[in-house]
Write a structure and sequence with these properties.
Rossmann fold, two-stranded antiparallel sheet
Length: 347
């Protein structure tokens, strides 16, 4: 039963005081896991489970521009915990925030070195000879390049989740780096990295009125403990940005923004190029209609660019984090992701 007016006021007062004093910070990323491989800043985690019944194992490659606990936000809003309960063997490749030693990392560093080595370690750890691959946000860009460049890898199926393709549709931040505007060096500091504060300011510029509307919604629901916990967790993650390697940033501007090479389907890589048409495994392009970070219009072309005969799309009527948190995640995104994974697995 919903609380009455007086009880709501008491709850608002309690939660408001906790918020103002900083005592309401929720615990995030709590699903038990084990570190099974590492190199430099790359970390491969396997989540503990006694309910594994689907094969092959699933590897989620996280973005370079945010922290991975968004995938395991809270126990009741965790994509990883949900997939574990459904019987999947879940691995996560994420990244310790870079420092100057990583400043000259390139896309090739991740695509040709870190991710293939992590996959080798995963296959040995799981006793498997193939895997399912999921790339989240910019992690999706990395996995697209990986699958196009390395046909020898045993990728049974793959999913790009909230992944950009057409960088003309990426809004203000992308447009500012088109020819004759900002240059990559304008964003890279003396450490050789794009500082976290610059990324945070850029993301905030994509949705300038959202801060006000979010705060109004927060205070209207201050009596609701579950809402408050979820709101604070998402708000904390959204501002918890990490630096970005300068080498990757230069390539992102030149290859992905100015050339728009992903949309062309032919991307410079190493001493040559890779083609999205060479991705032949079953493919799911999952994107969100109200996404302001990776707009749907940027993600949509991917489905037609890969070479798979089994290429589908999942359109979610939510924002960027609607795949992993919120009502849309629980009701729509997670069940449909589970259905696709199960249909391309053996159980």
């Amino acid at each position: 039963m919903a609380p009455g007016v007086l009880e709501r006021q008491i709850l608002r007062t309690r939660n408001g005081l906790a918020y103002l004093t900083g005592a309401s910070h929720p615990a995030m990323g709590q699903t038990p896991r084990d570190l099974v491989w590492k190199r430099d800043k790359a970390r491969l985690w396997r989540y503990r489970s006694e309910e594994r019944r689907f094969r092959p194992p699933v590897l989620i490659v996280h973005s370079l521009v945010s922290k991975s606990y968004i995938l395991d936000l809270l126990p009741n809003t965790s994509l990883i915990r949900y997939l574990l309960r459904e019987g999947f063997d879940i691995f996560l490749l994420d990244w310790v925030p870079p420092d100057p030693a990583d400043a000259e990392n390139t896309l090739e560093t991740y695509v040709d070195e870190y991710i293939p080595e992590a996959i080798e370690a995963l296959l040995e750890e799981a006793g498997a000879d193939e895997l399912t691959l999921i790339g989240y946000c910019f992690g999706g860009v990395l996995t697209l390049l990986l699958a196009a460049a390395h046909s020898e890898l045993p990728i049974r199926s793959m999913m790009a989740m909230a992944t950009p393709c057409d960088y003309r549709e990426m809004g203000f931040m992308s447009n500012m780096f088109r020819a004759d505007r900002l240059n990559p060096e304008d964003m890279i500091d003396e450490t050789g990295l794009v500082p976290a504060r610059a990324l945070d300011e850029g993301f905030q510029s994509l949705k300038p009125t959202e801060y006000v509307t979010q705060r109004v919604n927060f205070f209207q629901n201050l009596w609701n403990d579950e809402f408050v916990e979820g709101f604070l967790a998402i708000a904390f993650w959204a501002r918890d940005q990490v630096p970005f390697p300068g080498g990757v940033f230069r390539q992102t501007v030149e290859r992905l923004i100015r050339r728009n090479a992903l949309l062309e389907g032919v991307i410079p890589h190493g001493r040559g190029e890779v083609r999205l048409a060479d991705i032949r495994c079953p493919f799911l392009n999952a994107y969100a209609a109200q996404d302001t970070i990776t707009p749907a219009a940027s993600s949509v072309p991917l489905t037609a660019l890969v070479g798979s005969e089994d290429a589908r799309e999942l359109r979610l009527e939510s924002g960027h984090i609607g795949f992993v948190a919120g009502r849309q995640a629980a009701k729509v995104a997670r069940p449909q992701i589970r259905e696709w994974l199960a249909s391309h697995s053996e159980g």
